[in-house]
Amino acid sequence: MKTLRDMISEYQNELATGDLMPERAATILKEISALYGNVLDEVRKRQMEYNRVLKDVYDEEPKANRAKLKAEITPEFEAYLKARDTDKLTLEMIRALKYFLRAKEQEYREAS
Asked: Which of 18, 80, 92, 110 is buried deepest, with most CB atoms within 10 A?
């Protein structure tokens, strides 16, 4: 089963080829926009998991800076970072596709 990150990466690879038709760009934009809600849910879930770990470490470690460092080397923090990065990537891809489609629309208007 593909992860959310895998699905977003596939779209990213397709966009990276550079030879994208406007119809395909519109389809990708629609699909990525639909996935974006799932990305946000994943970020929220991973952040809550990390926050629980951070709280546990704070309870054990008297010094806050050491507790934070210990919490940031856990798998939960790594998962949170991946989810956050997927959020940023997805948002930037949405913006780039919108820009691409506006530019193509302008080209068609000028050509007519």
From this structure: 80
pLDDT at residue 111 greater than cutoff 90: no
Question: What range defines the domain where residue 106 resides?
Answer: 47-112
24 found inside a domain? no
Q: How far is CA 59 from the centre of its chain?
A: 31
Query: 36 in a domain, yes or no?
Result: no
Residue 112 has pLDDT above 80, yes or no: no
| Cα dihedral 69→71→74→80 (10° resolution) | -110
> What residue type is assigned to position 45 of the chain?
K
Kindly report, residue by residue over 53-63, the tens digit of the pLDDT: 999 999 999 89
Query: Number of folded domains in the chain?
Result: 1
Q: Is residue 14 part of a domain?
A: no
pTM: 0.88
Q: How far apart are CA 36 and CA 51, in angstroms?
A: 22
Answer whether residue 88 is part of any domain: yes
CA distance 75 to 53: 10
